[in-house]
Each structure stands twice: as C-alpha cells, then as structure tokens.
Amino acid sequence: MIFRRSLLATTRQRSNNTIIWSPHAIRRWSSLATEASAILFLAISRPEPNATAAGIRTASLLKHFATRFGSVHFACGASMKQKQSMSVAENVHWHHIKPNRTDDMTNLLLHIQSNHGPIRAVVFDRFYAEEAYSFRIREQCPHALRILDMQDVHSLRIGRQQLVEEFDQREQASNNMTAQLIDEVMKFDPSTHAWEDNLQDKKAHNILLRELASTHRSDLVLVCSSSEMKMLKQPSWNVKPWKLVPASFFQTIVKQETTICYNERSDFVTIGNFKHSPNVDSARLLKRIWPRIRSRLDPDADVRLHVYGAYPTNEILSMQDKKLGFYVHGHVLGINEALLNRRVMLAPLRFGAGIKGKIVDSWGCGLPAVTTPIGAEGMTQDGLDWGGLMASNEDEFVEAAVNLYTKKALWEYRQSKGLELLNRLFNKEQNLPLIDEALSDAMMNLEQRRKSDITGQLLWHQSNRSTEYFSKWIELKEVK
C-alpha cells in the first residue's frame, strides 16, 4: 500500500497551523512514489486550468499525486487533442474513453494495471462522473478507494440560482441585489428546503438526491469549502464524518513585499468562466451599476473595468462600452496578465457555491476584492478581517468599490488581510498533507469502513442502481 500510517505520524508537528514534514517523511514519500501503483481520475470533461478555477484545482491535485503514486491517469469522454497543454507532471497520463462502454473501461483498467501496477484509488470529478463510472470501478477494481471530488455542492448552487430567479420574477426586474435576497440565499440548504411540486423544483431536488447518493456510495468525499463541510455534517445530509476530507485550493505562500503597490496599480477587474451561471449574472449586474461607480471617481483618471473570462457569449461581448470604460477582453491565458496591475477585484455574486477561484487568484496577485457574503463564503476565519470589503446590496457595493479604490490606507490594510487569509486557508503545504492522511487512513481501514456504512451498502444494492442499468441500456442501444 502506497500510504503508511507510520509516515503520516511524522507530519503531525505544527507551526502556525502549517504541517511540518520531517526529513524522514520526505524520504519515505520519495521511495513510495517509485512503487508500481496508480491513481485514476475519471471525468466527463477534461480539466481546463487556463480557463476555470476548478481546472486549476484539479491540476494541482494531479501534480501532487504524481509525487505520491507511481503514475497518475486522467480519463474522460471529451477529446484529448489538447492534452499537451494540460501537462502537469511527467507521470500523468491522459486517456479518452467513451461513456457507457464496458469494453473501453475494461481495456483502460487492464492497460493501466498491466503497465503501471495496481490502481489504488479512483477519483471521480463531480457526482455525475461517479454516476457514470463508479459501478464499473466497483466491479473491476473492488479494492480501489473510490473518491468523489465535489468541486462544489451542485445542489446548493443550483438551488440558490433558482431562489434568485424566483426573486427576479417576483420583483419583475433582473439582477437586483438586496440584503433580503442575499440573506435568503445564504440561509438556503437544499437538504431542508421545502421543495414545491413544479418542474423547476423537481429538477433541483433531483440534483440533490443524485449528489447525496453519490456521496454515500463513495469511500471519501473531497470538499472544497469549509462552509460546505459544515453543511454536509448536518444530520439532514447524514454523511459519515470520516468520509469528508477538506480539499480546498493549493497555493504557494505569497509575501506582501513581493506584490505591486497601490500607486502602481489602476482600474477595476472581474474574471470568471462564462459557462458558469453565477459569473454571467455577476457581469450583468456590473454592467448596470458600473456607471454609478465610475461617476464617483476622478474623471481625469479614466478608470476602467476590465472583464476577463473564457467562453464569453455574444451577450457578454456586446457589453463592451469604451466610452464608459467597460472593456470586455474575454479569455486570457495568464491570470497574472489580467490581475497583477489592477487595483480592485469586483465580484457581485448573487448566488454560487464552493470557493471562489477568482478571489483566491486575486489575493495571490495582491489584489483585494469587493464581493457579497456569497463570494466570501468559506474564505473567512474567526478573528481576521476580510481581504477586501463585503456588501449585501447595490448601494453598499458601489460605496465599497469607491472606498477601496480611492483610500490608500484602507486598500493596503485589506490587501494585507487577503494575503494573510490566502496563506492561512489555501496554503498547499498545509492542505495537501490533510488529503494524504485521509487517503492513508481510508486505505488501511477500507473493508471495515465499507461494512459499517449501511447507507452506502443500501445504495449499492441492485434495486437502487438505476444509473448503472441505464448506462448499460444506452450501451446496448448504441452498439446495435
């Protein structure tokens, strides 16, 4: 087995909340990494570290596991034509498999185990990958640890979006942001929500049930946000606590003296993948309130708002208005190019879930942010001021944006707090060993854990395996 409890016992020294690796631990990991063993990632689509925060996080995990296993494999149903641009380590291998094809999966697993050693663990990228592939892994690699990487709680994000859309319909307006709305969104819990008997609610509730079933079928669940971790531990979710693993972002330490100072920065910026609904909604709101922000600033300074993000729609591109200083740039390959010289990040998110990668990236570039409590969710720590300003309505947001942009002392203080939170919450030297320890414990106690997991056993019972049989039906239909 690639993980050893004796190894992890050497990593429990802590200083300033950071796990310290002893020389012995490092030597043990180095030797273990050469052992013939593999970890397999299964996904519906390929990771896009140059386009999405989820892609950056997945690339970090792949790179890390490349030092812990003999080989790392990533397989998905999407094309792998651009796999060269996704290279994160020498021993990461990319595979294309068709969904709902038993032979494809069988051949892939045989190839890996014949050439790289036994598959010790399989990571499913989001619950729908677990639905598509987990039963095949269970059949063909029964001793492999099955890990669900949630990325975010989809049912939370989708339910929150539905609340916002219902609010817009009641108000007969779009993109309004009020304190009452933000409060309702923050209190929403899909597991206790009173779902109504309509098509939208049924769809959202179905996502909850599918996602919850996926967590119960898995041996471990990687949870990105501390607030979502707390939610999943509630009795209404009933997830075994030993399944839940904190797995946020994995950043390097950033020192304030290495960042660009206030006087050398200018303009506002926002960034986000526009396949992601919260980012589209945020851009619409910014387009409407940007004139209010700009009117409060020095007209001679020609302050601009720069909008970056992959997959901009025609609607997003049409928002550009140079006269108003609203510039839509679309996709940018290097995040530093978009953020390093800007002064303030704007993220007026009305809904969403998980950790907001745009704010993690902003803090990493020494850039404080103005956002909502939704944007800051899971990115706070008791006793520490936030790395920017939070607002729950449009007037507060405009005021916060103007103050953070124009007041140097406030900006410098909030920048320092952002860096402090970044280094405390998202430090890879602290967060990655927690995942290692969880995998080690799970591997050593896998049989015992599965026997004690009655809910998991129930969901693996043949009467509850509809996704497996649906997949097999699709295969039979398509191969005729």
Q: What would you say about this model in short?
A:
This protein is an alpha/beta fold and 480 residues long. It has helices at residues 5-8, 23-32, 53-65, 102-116, 127-140, 154-171, 179-187, 199-217, 226-232, 277-295, 314-317, 335-339, 357-364, 373-376, 394-406, 408-425, 428-444, 446-452, 454-460, 466-479; strands spanning 14-15, 18-19, 38-43, 71-76, 92-96, 119-125, 145-149, 220-223, 244-246, 268-271, 305-308, 326-330, 344-347, 369-371, 388-390. The chain has a seven-stranded parallel β-sheet, sandwiched between helices. A six-stranded parallel β-sheet has the order 12-11-10-13-14-15, with helices on both faces.
Q: Could you please describe the fold and organization of this structure?
A:
There is one protein chain. α5 packs parallel to α8 and α15 crosses α16. The longest helix is centred in the middle third of the chain and has 19 residues. The N terminus is likely disordered. β11, α11 and β12 form a beta-alpha-beta unit. The chain is an alpha/beta fold and 480 residues long. The chain is built from 20 helices and 15 strands. The chain has a 7-stranded parallel sheet with strand order 5-4-3-6-7-8-9, with helices on both faces. It is globular and about 65 Å long.
Distance between the termini: 42 Å
Number of helices, where a helix is a run of at least 4 consecutive DSSP H or I residues = 20
- How does the overall form come out from the CA principal axes? globular
Q: What percent of residues adopt helix (DSSP H or I)?
A: 40-55%
Helix-and-strand structural type: alpha/beta
Strand content: 5-15%
Order of neighbouring strands in the sheet with most strands: 5-4-3-6-7-8-9
How would a textbook summarize the main sheet? 7 strands, parallel
- Give Rg in angstroms: 23 Å
Low-confidence stretches: 1-34
Q: Total number of β-strand segments? A: 15
